[in-house]
Specification:
alpha/beta
Length: 176
């Protein structure tokens, strides 16, 4: 006698709690993960294909502020140590006292092994110095802060106090 077996169905896996577990895991990962805020400088770099020809101009030595960041992160002005906390006031004095505001230059020589934090702090202090000067001029000329000026007024303030910073990187042996 031949017995026929009926096709048996396997019972399904209970997946009702899978969505709950996935949601709990997702929330716990989001809560435990730290979201670091990006720290950097807002700069607009020139396009690599510049068709404009740059004019080389002679600048008087008294209109040049020489800064250097050493490999240890020390800031030097004309090879003399300068505290970063005094950089803003020194920069404001320098720009205010040059013979021609439009022809001043701040030269930053950066050692290739200098810590980024030192570079970042110097750039922040220079930006703060320019902001202070521009705010003062905007208040005097337009009766309001630079941030509240119209685009045309901002352009006029930027033309009055142009930001003229040049950077060179000092690559020593071991060349990158």
């Amino acid at each position: 006698m031949i017995l026929k077996h009926k096709g048996r169905k396997l019972p399904g896996i209970n997946t009702t709690s899978t969505a709950d577990i996935s949601f709990i895991l997702l929330v716990s990962f989001l809560v435990m993960t730290s979201m670091d805020v990006d720290k950097g400088l807002m700069r607009q770099l020139p396009t690599p294909e510049t068709t404009e020809r740059q004019n080389i101009t002679d600048i008087e030595k008294r209109n040049v502020m020489n800064l250097r960041i050493t490999s240890s992160g020390e800031l030097l002005e004309d090879d003399a140590p300068l505290d970063e906390s005094k950089l803003r006031s020194k920069t404001i004095d320098f720009i205010s006292n040059v013979s021609d505001r439009k022809k001043h230059v701040i030269v930053i020589d950066i050692d290739s092994k200098a810590p980024y934090v030192a570079y970042f702090n110097v750039q922040n202090e220079l930006a703060a110095a320019y902001n202070t000067l521009r705010n003062g001029y905007a208040r005097k000329a337009f009766g309001r802060d630079y941030a509240l000026c119209t685009p045309e007024q901002r352009e006029q303030v930027r033309a009055y106090y142009p930001q003229r910073i040049t950077e060179t990187t000092n690559w020593k042996e071991g060349g990158r």
